[in-house]
Amino acid sequence: MKNIVIFGAPGAGKGTQSDFIVEHFGLTHVSTGDLLRKEIADKTDLGRRIKDIMDAGRLVSDDIVTEMIDKAIAADTKGMLFDGYPRTVAQAESLDQLLAKHGRELTCMVQLDVPREELIRRLLERAKIQGRADDNEETIKNRLDEYNKKTLPVAEYYAAQGKQMLINGTGSIEEIAERIIKAIG
Length: 185
Ligand code: B4P
Known about the structure:
With 185 residues, the protein is of the alpha/beta class.
């Protein structure tokens, strides 16, 4: 059973490439960004608490996302693709513990490598099409700062475990999908 993390900066193509990976390997897709946005759209208590944090491009607390992931792993029988999680070293440690609790372990971490100017270009382009609350110039800068400070150390965590696979995340969506599937396979 494969359990894979897709990792990268905001706009690196994690959500985009996740569709190809889950289809090819028959995995369950868990995007913490999608789960959190649903809480906001459904106006739940949690959604009300996290809206301002997400709109500002900051990370929500580790406890909130860890609880969501625990539930998702408990409900899964196929193997999983974790998209947008873990985003801090504390979350990466929790993921290892949660997988072990369910008798599983992480297969690998796929890291999409994309230059900063291209990340900004993609997110501003998406802003025109989807109008997501956090896709504007100032919030994008906050998201990239959060990524550099809190999320990039997660790459070292997986490199130290020998589980990091670095993939060139530039080029056409199909080309990148082919690179990822070949590397995992
Ligand atoms: P996410 O939903 O994970 O959003 P994201 O980082 O912007 O990546 P996304 O997957 O949407 O974009 P993609 O790169 O596919 O997180 C949003 C917020 O949720 C965070 O800021 C945080 O507040 C909160 N959050 C989520 N998880 C959390 C956690 N674990 N802990 C704490 N907080 C958490 O694509 C971007 C754009 O690029 C798309 O428009 C796409 O079409 C385009 N694109 C993709 N590939 C391309 C290519 N090859 N060429 C050209 N364009 C491409």
